[in-house]
Amino acid sequence: MGETKQLSVSAIKNGTVIDHIPADTLFSVINILGLENISNQITFGTNLESKKFGKKGIIKVAGIYFSEKEINKIALVAPAARLNIIRDYEVVEKHQLTIPDEVAGIVKCFNPACITNHEPVTTRFRIISKDPLRLKCHYCEKITDEEHLTII
Amino acid sequence: MNSLKNKSLVSINDFSPREIESILETAARFEEDPPGRLLSGRVIAALFFEPSTRTRLSFESAVKRLDGQIIGFAEAGSSSVSKGESLKDTIRTVSNYSDLIVMRHSIEGSARYASEISPVPIINAGDGANQHPTQTLLDLYSIKKTQGTLDGLNIFMVGDLKYGRTVHSLLIALSNYKTTFNFISPAELRMPDEYKIILDKKGLKYYEHDDFTEIISRADIVYMTRVQRERFSDPLEYEKVKNIYVLRNEMLENTKENLRILHPLPRVNEIEPEVDENPKAYYFEQALNGVFVRQAIITSILDLI
């Protein structure tokens, strides 16, 4: 019964579906994409059953295709997520996310003494480890880890 | 082909082992045979946003002995920075007046940023706790000069190995050679894991100790650093360990003939003054070596050799 309702809500004509988001990072993904500030139709679900994670989250955004920068942000907090591009109710592209080797302008350096926290400098990091996530700042050379990760 | 031409020196990681050796060779040549007026007609800016008398004087001496002109400031209070000017504006302005900028700043990564916005090369003379590559190069020069080689040495690093940037940069530079490391520090100030991982990856041996009186006989180089009281969360812990990391003459009695004691200076109490007269003490010569090494760096970058 509940399942039928959920399906009818989730169908979108054009847009993006982000699937296989670990349930505990769903709200981080919503935040970093700034979804609370857009007026498009958005559906999200969490704690859905998943064979892979036990519990997963899903976000469906109508009329929006994310930029590479936004996709990289998602990859950093939910690398296992999948991105499906929907056109005319059909999945036309599927992307398995990958953490890039370098990121610019999407992560804040955790080091309060870093130049990027003092002057308007775009942050740059080299990813030195993907699991666990460790990013080395191009400027201060300090390492930001998962625990201290802040997406700008 | 001079690969150092117009290259900024921000981090020791920026220079290849070949480039480092080229600087050490040039420095040795300059020490042996001073090159005269090589910097004549050149203007070097020395921007010390954070004061460091020793490093600044070493750079000034290096430039002036080669007949170069030096402009700049010794502390941010006497510059437009105190009026709120951004680093970007200061660098862009000063780069109009000089052929090369030497800078020291308390903000980490400031020299990297400056090198990206400056049309003239930048030499980092210390950016907070991050990098101080000319110190590392003069340490390497001092080691090579006293040992004849950088290969196969047993290097003892003593004191604050957690926060000391000089030991971190020196470790990275020496990891290109067949070095054995001995780290001697209180538990609270051990060498961070990220540096041990670098050594593991390169298959280099390292050992950790609380004390070094028993093992100092194996050392080729003892690199002393200061253990600061304020680094300890518990003052009692500091009181317990403070005397373990103080070098005295009697500790040097049964050591190797080629052993030399290095220290980035300023020293406070971690080396007893009696050691200064010991032929194995090398820290003041090490400071002099800084002048030759800085001359070699500046003239290599300006492509004058």
Q: Could you explain the architecture of this structure?
A:
Chain A is an alpha+beta fold. Chain A is 17% helix and 40% strand. Chain A has helices at 2-10, 26-32, 68-77, and strands at 15-22, 42-50, 54-62, 82-87, 90-96, 102-104, 107-108, 124-130, 133-137, 143-145, 150-151. In chain A, the strands form 3 sheets. Chain A has a 5-stranded antiparallel sheet, with helices on one face. In chain A, a hairpin with a 2-residue loop joins β4 and β5 (90-96). Chain A starts with a helix and ends with a strand. Chain B has 305 residues and is of the alpha/beta class. Chain B folds into 2 domains: 34-131, 3-Layer(aba) Sandwich (Rossmann fold); 134-287, Rossmann fold, CATH 3.40.50. Chain B contains 9 helices and 9 strands. Chain B has helices at residues 17-32, 53-64, 87-94, 110-117, 133-147, 165-174, 193-202, 235-241, 283-301, and strands spanning 43-48, 69-73, 100-105, 122-127, 154-158, 180-184, 206-209, 221-224, 260-262. In chain B, α7 (193-202) links the parallel β6 (180-184) and β7. In chain B, α1 (17-32) packs across α9 (283-301), α2 packs across α9 (283-301) and α3 packs across α4 (110-117). Chain B is globular. Chain B starts with 16 loop residues before the first helix and ends with a helix. The model of chain B has no long low-confidence stretch (mean pLDDT 94). The A-B interface holds A 111, 113-116, 118-119, 121, 137-143 and B 11, 86-88, 106-110, 112-113, 127-131, 194.
Major sheet summary line of chain B: 5 strands, parallel
* Whole-number mean pLDDT of chain A: 88
As residue ranges, the low-confidence spans of chain B are none
Oligomer: heterodimer
Q: What is the approximate shape of chain A? A: elongated
The CATH class of the largest domain in chain A, by name, is Alpha Beta
SSE pattern of chain A, N- to C-terminal: HEHEEHEEEEEEEE
**CATH architecture name of the largest domain in chain A:** 2-Layer Sandwich
Number of helices of chain A: 3
Order of helices and strands of chain B: HEHEHEHEHEHEHEEHEH
- Quote the CATH topology of the largest domain in chain B: Rossmann fold
Distance between the termini of chain A: 40 Å
User: Strand order within the widest sheet of chain A?
Assistant: 2-3-1-4-5
**Coarse shape of chain B:** globular
Structural class of chain A: alpha+beta
Number of structural units classed as domains of chain A: 2
CATH superfamily of the largest domain in chain A: Aspartate carbamoyltransferase regulatory subunit, N-terminal domain
